[in-house]
Design goal:
3 helices; mainly alpha
Amino acid sequence: MPVLYLVALAIALTGMVMLDRRFRLFFWRDARRATIVLVAGVVFFLVWDLLGIGLGIFFRGETAFMTGLQLAPELPLEEIFFLALLCYLTMNVYGFGMTLLSRHRSVPR
């Protein structure tokens, strides 16, 4: 099962998209801004990873569940999908929090 981790990440990303669509949390609220934020987050963490790899801090773990495809030494293909999931999840949680906060503020006391 050398693609199991990539499939799991794709399923999780699909779940994020469905939650986002249902509750208008991130992309369905403002697609242009969401694209900029998501790309900036992935690029930031990708640079972070590359610096960590260059300094000998980060290493690719060996497992039978990964594709084995590398984008750079010690940087597996799955890392890009993981970083996208991490950023998307964070922004969905933020969007949900802002929705709850705005509802709480609009409730008369």
